[in-house]
Amino acid sequence: MPLSEFALIERYFRGRGAKRADVRVGIGDDAALLECPPGLELVAATDTLVAGVHFPAGSPPASIGHRALAVNLSDLAAMGARPAWALLALTLPAADEAWLAEFAEGFSALARAHDVALVGGDTTSGPLCVTVQLLGHVPRAAALLRSGARPADLVFVSGTPGDAAGGLAVEQARLTAPSEVVTYLRKRFLFPAPRIALGESLRNYASACIDVSDGLLGDAGKLAHASGCGVELSFTDIPVSELLVRAVGEERARELALTGGDDYELCFTVRPSEVGRLRQELPPERWGYTHIGVMREASGAIVTRGGNVMEFSHSGFDHFGS
Amino acid sequence: MPLSEFALIERYFRGRGAKRADVRVGIGDDAALLECPPGLELVAATDTLVAGVHFPAGSPPASIGHRALAVNLSDLAAMGARPAWALLALTLPAADEAWLAEFAEGFSALARAHDVALVGGDTTSGPLCVTVQLLGHVPRAAALLRSGARPADLVFVSGTPGDAAGGLAVEQARLTAPSEVVTYLRKRFLFPAPRIALGESLRNYASACIDVSDGLLGDAGKLAHASGCGVELSFTDIPVSELLVRAVGEERARELALTGGDDYELCFTVRPSEVGRLRQELPPERWGYTHIGVMREASGAIVTRGGNVMEFSHSGFDHFGS
To answer: What ipTM does this complex have?
Structure first.
């Protein structure tokens, strides 16, 4: 790309996202200058989306912009953090103005919704690849970690995992369904809603937390591993959406929830003694979370149904494939 | 790549770089948790290197690791900041263990040299692309900005720009030279030394600063533009290395210095009243900087020789090409 195109691209991103008083210098200098509030810890995450790997090559640009930020917001949600500032590294094969305008709007709309300022970035020429770095804050020593769970802690998940895997299958023409189902599932894949408010609220209740990005079973297993224990999930307790069930049936819907990925929900654990307070102060019907299992002494992540352990591969969503 | 390969890759990076007491949680959770020191501002930069764009496809992996961090260190140097924490987003076509080990060591050696801890990252499958986000600190309101220069401020540059463009030409077999020259120029391209110590020291002297990554003339022009004025550089005052002169002659060496790129030197301005103190307290022969021009009222960036304005394109280093 000629230099003038880079200048053009940068114009699409200057001043996008939220306006924040704690940004002393944003885009336009060698680096951003930011005010860290006293008494808080800084939380930093980075995640990359690659065309053809994390999204189908022809995905709507607004979705790519939304998801590039959403996956990082989800990481901060899992720490119980409040997001503040983002940096965007965008590698593009060419400067397509219509594409850029939609991408920037997808990114910016989600950024504004979570009061995130875009404070810096880099635009380079190359195969389509988007890396976002997200910075936020959490009160000192209050962050939710993966490592805080103990045997007997109860396990919960937010929302209805599996929808995004269904939506990806729709995008890839591996799944057909009635139009209202298609609309719902596509939206769940293309525009996931990171659980920032839930993550912040859980700081007072959860013993451990992880975001569900690679499939609930695998991610619950990572939480268990980090906590030095194991986890048992109850198949029939896995929450799945009615629309996903209409598309694939209840059995496969739960399989997608356990192994599908791209959900950006939160999986968290709560001490048995705290569960009453959790349910009272954060009513599950309002906050949208479900009890799905229990932490146990023996390592590993298992799923049980009617007292029997079920076998799962990590490629459930490939069942749609040829 | 199978999941197990990602786990392998992450093992190469865990605990790399410097150990720092202000890292509460590093690699291994959903995000890093970091302690911001009171009274300081946070400085954040991100830069991407793409194979075939920012480095030749077969570059030594240690150089790619080094440069991915160096380009960001240079951004922080230009703000007068002290670096602290890095996040690494690495997109790789395959998990080649020998490549990874060299890449990680190139990154880590430079990180340790500047007391930078690697606190997070993401590994994805795709075309080779490296994005680093670097965080650091600067005392409140002390950062060097591009926008602080005024007409009559003197302009300086560190080191000997142009060497890196010569080194790239060697790497691309567009330039041949005696072996000691080749060794020197390749090193200047493959392992640039960001001017962190100089940047920090300049906080007390410089009115504006930018890092020289896209060619001295263009970058001095960006500084001038941000400051709302222009800049005049003196061709015969542009410092070039003896070895570059041996390779390409003095005229072309200065042309490379002005238009080549990849130098990661600092271009900075100083008020006329402060120049005496600068020279006394930061002796140029020890700190390695040279007076090359002056800021002026009229906008734009010009180069003069013997009172005449010279014409430059931004593609000086292409003169090696066929």
So the answer is: 0.90
